[in-house]
Amino acid sequence: MKRTFAVDPWMIATHQFHPEDKRLQESLTAIGNGYMGMRGNFEEQYSGDQLLGTYLGGVWFPDKTRVGWWKNGYPAYFGKAINAPSFLPIRIKVNEQPVDLAKNSFRDFYLALDLHQGLLTRQFIYEGDQVEVRFEFQRFLSNVVKEAALINVKATVLSGKATITFDAGLEGRVANED
């Protein structure tokens, strides 16, 4: 059995990134506050396989049960969580080149979910054309103000010269996957 994360009572952490395990990592690093929840997707663009997910409590769709045959006790409908528009996307460019871990070279990957604090952190060193940049991300959903979320992104140029741009926005073209 392959171990994806280190074992710790209050921390889910890994220094490994395997694209084939991306959806599992997203599931295991999901955060929520009882009002909204979101999968552990990357903040920046990621062109590889992933399952985007931001969900709001109480927002659902009554989907007809598909069992192939009717059986006593099965409901006619079940509540399907609807994927809400995402406030997560931050398009990041280094010297006009998009940061995308499916396409770019990087090293020193780290992903952790502090279960005690509810803080999701991630960092890596982007390796571009004659430039290296450390990116650090933090994400938190507030329990005090249920509608509040924090995304903190820090970029540190380690070598070379870099112009770094951040373009944050909303992604409304979301869909559920059945």
TrEMBL record:
Specify the domain of life of the species encoding this protein: Bacteria
Where's the Glycoside hydrolase family 65 N-terminal domain?
14-176
Q: Which residues cross the membrane?
A: none
Q: Which GO terms describe its molecular function?
A: carbohydrate binding; hydrolase activity, hydrolyzing O-glycosyl compounds
Q: Name one GO biological process term.
A: carbohydrate metabolic process
**Pfam (any one):** Glyco_hydro_65N
Provide the protein name: Maltose phosphorylase
Source species, please? Lacticaseibacillus paracasei subsp. paracasei Lpp126
